[in-house]
Structure formats: structure tokens, C-alpha cells
Design goal:
Shape of chain B: globular
Number of domains of chain A: 1
Number of domains of chain B: 1
Distance between the termini of chain B: 23 Å
Structural class of chain A: mainly alpha
Number of strands of chain A: 3
Number of helices of chain B: 7
Low-confidence stretches of chain A: 1-27
Mean pLDDT of chain B: 89
Largest sheet of chain A: 3 strands, mixed
Order of helices and strands of chain B: HHHHHHHE
Order of helices and strands of chain A: HHHHEEEHHHHH
Mean pLDDT of chain A: 82
Radius of gyration of chain B: 13 Å
Low-confidence stretches of chain B: 98-104
Structural class of chain B: mainly alpha
Oligomer: heterodimer
Strand content of chain A: 5-15%
Strand content of chain B: under 5%
Largest sheet of chain B: none
Helix content of chain B: 55-70%
Chain lengths: 216, 104
């Protein structure tokens, strides 16, 4: 059963009601603070704000209340709706969500991945577990941000708020030759700019969403 | 054991990805003696052993992250030694990959 908390936010503390002004900040998580310091622009704040609104509209109180009773197909449809709508709003190519079995030991399994073709893949076991709803939202948003990074590199003129220095770093790290796999170097993987950016964005959105929904 | 020989062994005998492994030379080189000795022992004998830092050993890391290569677990143990708070939190966080098909 969903217990009114969203697993996966770690040491989340104060919850803002949302990004209600340009100066609104959501302190608490190291990832968010790092994201704030990195380069966050007013346009990026708006992206966070709008993504949060879409998340709140799709994962409404009613949906949260009935989440544990839904079939896998129903859950997939709702996650897909969020991913596609939020992606459209961001101006990126979010084709859809594929929920499928992923191998791994309990507690260590991957939540999902972005296959680089507009689709994200989520672990069926995680989607099926009502207590993991927060992680599902976090993963979908994290992978959406990776899709955003890709779009910002493919069409720089559409995302002119992203500084050239950030774009160059993303371009370098996105290259298969330079990408650091967690299977080889977890510290290197974790500290890549593209991963810090995706973690910061998704945790920011989740934290604001939790504030809006009074979930903490 | 020289770092270049460790890398050569992992790529040629363990089928590690060459690009991913070769770039780790500076990190292998910088390992403290106790971890490097344990890594060398694993390479020579196949026996995984390691010192313990903050309750973590290479065995424990591999049990929590079975997708990691053994080399990655030794490097992760060194990360725990240097920065336990960040490293343990990160290691306990499931991976969300975006680049598939990177060969082990």
C-alpha cells in the first residue's frame, strides 16, 4: 500500500509549496544545492515549475490514492502520460515509457534507463511495488532530463539558456567514448555533470511536487 | 604489480572494456597500499579480499552492486575510505543508466 510518503528522497527536509517566485529556492538535498550552484537559469526554473505542475496534474491525489489498486497497464499508461506531456512541454522528444522486467538482485536492481531513442525503460518490479512510486517518478524525471540534455545538444538554438560551457561538458560526457560506466567507476559515474544535472533536476521536481501534494 | 599489468590482465583475461578500464589507470595507481595489495591478490589468486572501511568490504559492495566489475568494487571501497558519507549514499542509490550496451 502507498503510505503517503515518496520513497527515494533521502534526507529531504523542508518542503516548499512550490516555485512560486523567481527567488524561490528549495534547499535541503545536496543534489539540489549542487544543481542550483551549477548554472540554473530562470528558464530552467520555469521548466521545473511546469514539470512539477504536470506531475501534480497527472499524479493527482486520486491517482495516488488508487495507485496500489491499479494494474500494471494502468500504471504504465499514467507514467506514460506524465512522461509524454512533460516532454512535450519541455520541447523534447519523449516518445513513451516501456515497462519491462529487469534482472538484478532484490534491493540492487536498476530502476530504469534511457535508450536514447525517445523511450525510457522502467523496471516492472519497481512500477509494480506501490511503495516505490516516488522512485518511479524520480526515475522517469531523471531519464527525461537526460533526454533534455540530448535535445539541448541536438538543437542548441531551442535551448539557448544552457550555457556553452555546460553544453560542451554534456557533449563530452554523452560521447560513448567518454561516458563513465557505473560498472567500472562508480565515483566517476556519479560525479559526471550529466548525472549531477539529472539528479538535481529530478529531485528538485520531486521535492516541489511533494510540497504541493503535502507528502513528506 | 604494475598498474599497466593490472589493466592488461583485466582487458585480456577478464574481457573488461578496454576504453573504460584504461582510463582508470590513475585511480588504480593512487590506491592505498592495502587496497592495491588486495586487488593484486585477487588478480593473482582469484580470491576476493579487502580491508574494511565503514563496514564495507569489496565482497559487501559486490553483493549490493552485483553489476559492478570487481575492479569497480575495489575503487568504490577506496571512495568509501576517502569520503564515506557521499560514497555510501551513492552506492546505495540504484543506477539510472542512459547509455546502454557498454560491455563489461
Amino acid at each position: 500500500m502507498f503510505d503517503g510518503t515518496l520513497d527515494g528522497l533521502g534526507e529531504a527536509t523542508a518542503i516548499n509549496e512550490g516555485l512560486q517566485s523567481d527567488d524561490a529556492a528549495v534547499p535541503g538535498l545536496p543534489e539540489i544545492e549542487m544543481f542550483e550552484k551549477q548554472y540554473i537559469s530562470e528558464v530552467d526554473r520555469m521548466r521545473i515549475h511546469e514539470t512539477t505542475n504536470i506531475m501534480a496534474a497527472v499524479f493527482s491525489e486520486d491517482v495516488i490514492a488508487s495507485w496500489s489498486e491499479m494494474s500494471l497497464n494502468e500504471k504504465t499508461d499514467i507514467i506514460n502520460e506524465y512522461y509524454v506531456k512533460a516532454g512535450e512541454n519541455l520541447g523534447i522528444d519523449t516518445k513513451g515509457v516501456i515497462v519491462e522486467p529487469m534482472h538484478g538482485n532484490p534491493g540492487t536492481i536498476s530502476f530504469g534507463y534511457n535508450s536514447g531513442d525517445g523511450y525510457i525503460h522502467l523496471n516492472e518490479a519497481v512500477v509494480n511495488d506501490p511503495s516505490m512510486l516516488g522512485q518511479v517518478l524520480n526515475t522517469a524525471t531523471h531519464e527525461m532530463r537526460h533526454q533534455f540534455q540530448y535535445a539541448a545538444l541536438s538543437n542548441p538554438s531551442n535551448f539557448s539558456d544552457i550555457p556553452d560551457s555546460v553544453r560542451k561538458t554534456w557533449e563530452y560526457e554523452w560521447s560513448p567514448v567518454h561516458y563513465i560506466s557505473p560498472d567500472y567507476d562508480y565515483e566517476g559515474y556519479y560525479n559526471q555533470a550529466i548525472e549531477c544535472d539529472a539528479r538535481g533536476f529530478s529531485e528538485y521536481v520531486l521535492k516541489v511536487y511533494m510540497g504541493k501534494m503535502h507528502l513528506n | 604489480m604494475k598498474t599497466e599489468n593490472i589493466i592488461k590482465f583485466l582487458v585480456e583475461e577478464k574481457n573488461y572494456d578496454k576504453v573504460q578500464t584504461e582510463r582508470l589507470a590513475p585511480k588504480i595507481e593512487a590506491l592505498p597500499e592495502e587496497i592495491k595489495n588486495a586487488l593484486t591478490k585477487w588478480i593473482k589468486s582469484g580470491t576476493v579480499s579487502s580491508p574494511e572501511y565503514n563496514g564495507y568490504t569489496v565482497d559487501k559492495i559486490l553483493s549490493e552492486k552485483p553489476e559492478m566489475t570487481t575492479l569497480a568494487a575495489y575503487l568504490a571501497l577506496d571512495w568509501i575510505r576517502r569520503d564515506p558519507q557521499t560514497a555510501i549514499k551513492a552506492i546505495l542509490t540504484p543506477v539510472m543508466k542512459f547509455t546502454p550496451n557498454i560491455r563489461k
